């Protein structure tokens, strides 16, 4: 076990969180989970985390008067849990430079497209509308830009005739559930080197 403590932020279903928890249980990721945070009380991830006996807290964005107040509450929970690596796993909110500065180079995000193409909230819809023949998913460090930080890992899937958003999303999600645990494993094992603000080297 490394000394790394994960803080996982989710907004909804939590299937990526589940794949990460499974990888911890299997010994692939040598870290513990300090806290699971959601921005929505109805997030299924909250129930899943509670069932696993994890500390889980909803910081309801709608109950906060400003983004700063919301983010200060997130940071307070992360600090109280001793978090060393923040995992955005289907967290559908943009974080401000304040939050990014509190955990610089210690925040990972997953996005369901091959960045820098098709960032934003409707990746699969945008892929299908554009007509690309491949899509995929990206794990990257979070910086101040949206879906912008240096890329750690990517994987691809074909886009097939007849795909709907749901079908494509399910194909990409299978890859996400392998890729995110792998990227976290690399991070906690100290194998990621940030060469500059765009390039991540994976040490052998
Ligand atoms: C995942 O497909 C993830 O890549 C995406 O939301 C889904 C969450 O599913 N994230 C984004 O679109 C971030 N911009 P999950 O809650 O089952 O992990």
Please tell me about this protein's structure.
This protein has 204 residues and is of the alpha/beta class. It has one domain: Formyl transferase, N-terminal domain (Rossmann fold, 3-Layer(aba) Sandwich). It has helices at 15-25, 44-51, 67-80, 97-102, 123-130, 165-188, and strands at residues 5-10, 32-38, 56-58, 85-88, 107-111, 134-141, 151-158, 192-194, 200-202. A seven-stranded mixed β-sheet has the order 3-2-1-4-5-6-7, with helices on both faces. The protein has a two-stranded antiparallel sheet with strand order 8-9. Helix 1 (15-25) runs parallel beside helix 6 (165-188). It starts with a strand and ends with a strand. The mean pLDDT is 97. The site of glycinamide ribonucleotide has 13 residues, from helix 1, strand 5 and helix 6. Glycinamide ribonucleotide (GAR) binds at residues 10, 12-16, 89-90, 110-112, 173, 176.
Task: Kindly list the characteristics that best describe this protein.
Rossmann fold, 204 residues, 9 strands, alpha/beta, seven-stranded mixed sheet, two-stranded antiparallel ribbon
Summed up:
The protein is α/β, with parallel strands linked by helices and 204 residues long. It has helices at 15-25, 44-51, 67-80, 97-102, 123-130, 165-188, and strands at 5-10, 32-38, 56-58, 85-88, 107-111, 134-141, 151-158, 192-194, 200-202.
């Amino acid at each position: 076990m490394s000394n790394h403590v994960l803080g996982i932020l989710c907004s909804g279903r939590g299937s990526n969180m589940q794949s990460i928890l499974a990888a911890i249980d299997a010994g692939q990721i040598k870290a513990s989970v300090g806290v699971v945070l959601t921005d929505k009380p109805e997030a299924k991830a909250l129930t899943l985390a509670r069932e696993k006996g994890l500390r889980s807290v909803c910081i309801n964005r709608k109950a906060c008067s400003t983004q700063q107040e919301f983010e200060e509450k997130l940071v307070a929970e992360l600090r109280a849990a001793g978090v060393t690596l923040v995992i955005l796993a289907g967290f559908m909110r943009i974080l401000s430079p304040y939050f990014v500065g509190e955990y610089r180079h210690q925040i990972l995000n997953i996005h369901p497209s091959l960045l820098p193409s098709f960032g934003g909230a409707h990746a699969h819809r945008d892929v299908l509308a554009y007509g690309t023949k491949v899509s995929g998913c990206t794990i990257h460090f979070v910086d101040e830009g949206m879906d912008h930080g240096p890329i750690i890992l990517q994987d691809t899937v074909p886009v097939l005739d007849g795909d709907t958003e749901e079908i494509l999303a399910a194909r990409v999600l299978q890859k996400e559930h392998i890729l995110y645990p792998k990227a976290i494993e690399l991070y906690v094992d100290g194998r990621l080197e940030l060469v500059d603000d765009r390039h991540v080297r994976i040490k052998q």
